[in-house]
Amino acid sequence: MKPSASEKLVALLKSLPEQAFASHTDFLTTIVPQFAQILGYAPEEVFFEPYLANTRMRSDAMLAPGPTSRPWLVVEVKLVRDDQRNPPPIGRWRIQLKQFSSTSGSPAILISPFDLLVRTSGSTSRYSNSEITSEQADGLVMLLGRATRGAPAEEAPPAPAQGNERLDQWFLLTRRALSVLLDNVNTATTNAAKGASLEELAAQVFASAPFCRVKHRNLTTASSEIDLVLEFTPEGVPHPFHEAGRYVLVECKNWAEPVGAKHIRDYLAKLAAVRATLGILFSANGVTGADAGADALREIQRAFDKDNASIAVVTKDDLARVLAGDSFLDVIDARLDRLRFNRD
Questions:
Q1: CA 79 to CA 229: how far, in whole Å?
Q2: Considering its fold, how many domains does the chain have in total?
Q3: Are 232 and 97 in the same domain?
Q4: Whole-angstrom Cα distance, residue 181 to residue 201?
Q5: Which pLDDT score is estimated for 96?
Q6: Per residue, what are the HEC states of 114-145?
Q7: Range(s) of the domain holding residue 79
Q8: Alpha-carbon distance 302 to 84, whole Å?
């Protein structure tokens, strides 16, 4: 049986600390083609030392449909030694990736023999090559793989119903992009890929909103882990979010069953711990009690009535309606309105 893409990625990354490379160029031209092939990119889609389209910035490599195209993925490499006295400048690397990503409008990664940094949807994640897990690799293949890319917006063919139009005036993600992201959610098979695909969808939707930014992804606190932390800008926040304060916590559950009361109580505890009043739960199949006003739904209503804490639930059905033309902001507004007035 042939190894999967995630298994190949684990093997490659774990091998890097033990390999010897003669130079930066040797490292670049050896590792990037292997990395690209594992993720499903063709050799002719790998370009070395390109100038990013419409900029004066130059990266070590990019994965793109053509040498002057907007990249699918910007790639930087750093050949460093394992020296405890001189640890790698991770902070500077993060800044560099942020610049590449914000300038190109595309995800960016940095590969060293010991670390992999991934910049997407406004935040940067760091992985240890020697400790990479199969679950993490599943998520990376889902996030960075060629199958999820499609053509960049300026080169994509026009599409009538689910094409270049934005979700609404507040959320600027195109319906074509949402269609690809939602398809990833629906076709994911492993638990890691299911979670990563829905989280990426939520991150892309909110990263497209000018009034907020995705400040943290997979934030680990002293007591819990939070999928996404949104931070609102001081001005321009649309009316459904006026009472939310500075931060909103987003949770993503791509489960076959509805989310139950216990998980809602855990979610409410996370909100209380950081003094946030609004959570947005992306749950593929909603929450329990939706038909009878009980269980998880009752916990959500009780928290609003007693603690002024709100959870807006977004389901796959809601996203399908947005894809068909509904406003994403209106979906959130309707959920919060129903909660405030305790309506069915």
A1: 33
A2: 2
A3: no
A4: 6
A5: 86
A6: CEEEEEECCEEEEEEHHHCCHHHHHHHHHHHC
A7: 5-147
A8: 52
